[in-house]
Amino acid sequence: MPRRCHRYGQGNGGPCSCEMGNLYRFAEPVMLLAIAGRGEVHGYQIAQEAEGMAVTHAGLDSGVIYRTLRRLEAAGRVVSRWDTSRPGPARRVYVLTESGMQHLREWAQVLEAVTASLQALTHNCQKAAQSRRSAATRPALPVGVSTSRNRMGAG
Amino acid sequence: MPRRCHRYGQGNGGPCSCEMGNLYRFAEPVMLLAIAGRGEVHGYQIAQEAEGMAVTHAGLDSGVIYRTLRRLEAAGRVVSRWDTSRPGPARRVYVLTESGMQHLREWAQVLEAVTASLQALTHNCQKAAQSRRSAATRPALPVGVSTSRNRMGAG
DNA sequence: CCGACTATTTGCAAGTTACACCTAGCATTA
DNA sequence: TAATGCTAGGTGTAACTTGCAAATAGTCGG
Q1: How far is Cα B104 from Cα B126, in angstroms, rounded to an integer?
Q2: Is the CB of residue A2 less than 8 Å from the CB of residue A64?
Q3: Which residues of B in 69-98 have their CB below 7 Å from strand D's atoms?
Q4: Percent of chain B's residues with pLDDT above 70
Q5: Chain A residues whose beta carbon lies within 8 Å of the beta carbon of residue B57
Q6: Please, which residues 81-140 of chain B have a Cβ atom closer than 8 Å to chain A?
Q7: Residues near B28 by Cβ (< 8 Å), separated by ≥ 6?
Q8: Can you give the pLDDT at residue A52?
Q9: pLDDT tops 70 at residue B140
Q10: Which of A61, A94, A121, A141 has its CA 20 to 30 A from that of B137?
Q11: Distance between CA A82 and CA A80 in Å, rounded?
Q12: Do B143 and A15 touch (CB under 8 A)?
């Protein structure tokens, strides 16, 4: 799904979350937070800030941003108006509704739980990765245990 | 995407991560960890343990588990053999390869980074949710305001 | 034989993502 | 004037994951 990002192939110390695939971008809370923080934003603004706020290294795709904004508006979480008061193309400016504020509070609770679980998972992965690494001068696991019955198309 | 889970509508204090949608299950690291921890597992075993290890409350769907196992095998992260030594239907038993061990180490690094980012996001969401909650007897945001010209030079 | 449990696999609808591409306003430069 | 580049919003599509349901099988108890 994610095929590259600004970090791709740059050797920034450790594998990139984008190369691992399978990570959501948490676009909704990131964007709700951006709107709540500024009171009023347009999509392009979010796209420029999102790189720093995003959970993974890929930032948020502009397509995702604009579609998420429309989805949030359809759900009543934000309302928008067109701002033509400044030069340049018109901007669609968004503000949170009370429902959107409530949604952000819900996200805060959910994220707290998810973060805790993820922290535990991370800890366990690190422990497992380390415990085997010490005993890994030889192949960590006897690969090739009579794999005999591997019929089934094998993917 | 996720429509229910065992927690659905049970009022366990706070909204369920499943109701928020948009959360990946981190199936791959959870499963790699399960395999690494036991040395040898089959899919059904993972399905039964996964509820406790999963990052969200939904656990891991058995379809996801079996498909992920095949994908991991196709990528050389695990190898399988059929175990018919015990009564009941044959079980496909998986062990990690050295490449799979390496993948787990990579996941450990990625998860560490993601956890840190997620923690920051969580913290910011909580702060935003709280700071406005105190001032939210009246509608949280006057919709349509032109707030103090958040001019965000942006570049 | 029938159901219950174990165990694996597949089909499908729904949803998200990454990328490419498009429209359009305005400013600078040749 | 034309070309170029930045700002700003939007759409189309392929690839992928997920959740749920259903199919297939082996074994055991009644």
Answers
A1: 31
A2: no
A3: 71, 87-90
A4: 66
A5: 113
A6: 81-82, 84, 90, 95-98, 101, 104-115, 117-119, 121-122, 124-126, 128-129, 132-133, 136, 139-140
A7: A20, A22, B68, B72, B107
A8: 72
A9: no
A10: A94
A11: 7
A12: no
Cβ–Cβ under 8 Å, residues A97 and A78 = yes
Res A16: pLDDT: 54
pLDDT at A130: 86
Q: What is the pLDDT of residues B88-99, one digit of tens each?
A: 899 999 999 999
Cα–Cα distance measured from residue A33 to residue A37, given in angstroms and rounded to the nearest whole number: 6
**Tokens (6 digits) for B3:** 């429509």
Q: Which CATH architecture has domain A17-134?
A: Orthogonal Bundle (1.10)
- Asked if the model's pLDDT at residue B124 lies above 80, the reply is yes
Residues whose CB is less than 8 angstroms from the CB of residue B105 and which lie 6 or more positions away in sequence, other chains included:
A129, A133
Q: Which of B140, B102, B110, B69 is nearest to A13 (CA)?
A: B110
List the CATH code of the domain at B25-132: 1.10.10.10
pLDDT exceeds 90 at position B77: yes
